[in-house]
Amino acid sequence: MKKIFIFSILLFAGIGSFSFGQIYSTPNTNPQIINMIHRSLVIEKDAYIKVEGDPFVDKDFEKGTIIFKDSTRASDIPLRLDTYTDNLQLKINDTIKVLSPPDIIDHANFGHREFIYSRFKEGAFYKNGYFEVLAQGNCKLLLRRESVIRREQLPASNFGGGNYRDYFRTTNTYFIKKDDNPAVKISRSKKSILAVLGDHKSDLEKYIRDNHLKLSKEDALIDLIYYYNSLIAKH
Predict the structure, then answer these.
(1) What is the pLDDT of residues 146-174, one digit of tens each?
(2) pTM value?
(3) What is the rounded CA–CA span in Å between residue 79 and residue 63?
């Protein structure tokens, strides 16, 4: 279904009233975030009002920090992630904006989570998008959330009109990212994971067996990735 959110013309009212003193890269205000805000587009607040549920990792904006690829940072920013449009959003007073371009962001921390914008491989195609980082290191375990709008037909009504409801459905997919390479999609199975981490296959198989890891569980995946990082650190 065509995405229903509507981008408005760039507004500068509201930006002027936003306190840049709260967004800083010591000792000076970070020009990266200022440029992003001025270049970003405004989102219609009620874009999803006719759809049940929401596509946000956390619906409420959480103050967080953006670390840019030049190692500077901007802090105390109200942020949230929209998994339908795959956009990082910023709230300025009552205005919601998409932060763009995303590829200058190294990572963002908010709501007790860390997110990165990365290239990834899915099937035969390469794409770019946001991920939550579940395990840190040279090898990372990533979680990608993607939301779509589904329509359910409802029983006929005597009042006429459309007898249906639109609702969000969100899927979670796991990826492994080695160094600066594109992230690779995995299923939560030993075969799929060892296909990506095959350089230490025998060590990982032993670790899975000795620790009775059930790789269908997220905690076990995180455990295995940290163990893999400890192995590559020794070489």
Answers:
(1) 999 999 988 876 665 668 899 999 999 99
(2) 0.83
(3) 6
